[in-house]
Amino acid sequence: MTTQLTITRPDDWHLHLRDGALMASVLPHTAREFARAIVMPNLKPPVSTVEMAAAYRERILAALPAGSDFQPLMTLYLTGNLTPDEVVKAKNSGFVHAVKLYPAGATTNSEAGVAGLDGVMPTLEKMAEIGLPFLVHGEVTDPAVDVFDREAAFIDQVMAPLLQRLPTLRVVFEHITTKQAAQFVAEAGANVGATITPQHLLMNRNALFQGGIRPHHYCLPVLKREEHRQALVAAATSGSTKFFLGTDSAPHALHTKEAACGCAGIYSAHAALAFYAEAFDAAGALDKLEAFASFNGPDFYRLPRNSGTVTLVKEDWTVPASYPFGEHNVVPLRAGETLGWKLL
Ligand SMILES: NC(=O)N[C@@H](CC(=O)O)C(=O)O
Ligand SMILES: [Zn+2]
Ligand SMILES: [Zn+2]
């Protein structure tokens, strides 16, 4: 039985850091586990220009714990105003690594997103030309589509037509949650990859209603049936280079989760690698964790792999009931429960 695992220093390819005092509270968790992270731009107002991304990056760097060499990799929020010139500027900046699609109304702070892709085709064409990755929250927003079917519908209605139109566009299908998405990505060209979160590897939708309603298990895309969880585990542990680590750690203050209309987002940054180790261990695939966590992401983004290592040990520890989050608190995934893996 494996009791200790040393891997190349990993990165988180999908992270919400928020801003200000909230960011300062959660940033140390990510900086302890990861060398770099793709920082999502869904602030209010959204990070929609290179100038805004530069300023946000400076705020993150200023909030890092002393001695940390963590590097935030910035992204731009796709609004109807993002021009082809601005994506060229982004690519040339060296610190903006992608553009993010939030279909309007699909998720937290998506109001500024686009309703469809027709109006932004010149911008997407420019991205395909210069090789700037397009990160996609892949859910349709049509209220007539069942919430559990919105990702599968997105593949047929948006993702497949987009790639037919722009076959060389580099696309990351973010936080995939279904067997349809796993299969689509596996069968697509080398320009298409996907991130997978810890919660979608560890839980199915029963976790939303385990003995009562569980707001801290609610995220978007919402947890799916067990068959989908199994397909995601199979994809992550398959050895395919198309799938990589992206926690989608998305902190919300306790009172906004435990509410009549609670926010979507699961906080996992406090124990991200422990969660992935648990999922890969359960699948008997710990030997596949390093490529998923530390190689496939940088290779897709055409960035160097990290040097240095981190070590995980099979050792019980108890997750706190909450962590400070600015002047509030955030309830982490598995709050008050025991985890079997620990980052040294
Ligand atoms: N995943 C979530 O449930 N929430 C994310 C937004 C997102 O990634 O869709 C957030 O910013 O809170
Ligand atoms: Zn999303
Ligand atoms: Zn996200």
TrEMBL record:
One of its GO terms (cellular component) is cytoplasm. It catalyses: (S)-dihydroorotate + H2O = N-carbamoyl-L-aspartate + H(+). Zn(2+) 1 binds at residues 14, 16, 100, 248. The active site is at 248. Binds 2 Zn(2+) ions per subunit. It is an enzyme of class 3 (hydrolase). InterPro entries: Amidohydro-rel, DHOdimr, Dihydroorotase_CS, Metal_Hydrolase. Substrate binds at residues 16-18, 42, 137, 220, 252, 264. PROSITE patterns: DIHYDROOROTASE_1, DIHYDROOROTASE_2. CDD domains: DHOase. GO terms for biological process: 'de novo' pyrimidine nucleobase biosynthetic process; 'de novo' UMP biosynthetic process. Zn(2+) 2 binds at residues 100, 137, 175. Pfam families: Amidohydro_1. Pathway: Pyrimidine metabolism; UMP biosynthesis via de novo pathway; (S)-dihydroorotate from bicarbonate: step 3/3. Keywords: Hydrolase, Metal-binding, Pyrimidine biosynthesis, Zinc. HAMAP family: PyrC_classII. Homodimer. This is Dihydroorotase. It comes from Andreprevotia lacus DSM 23236.
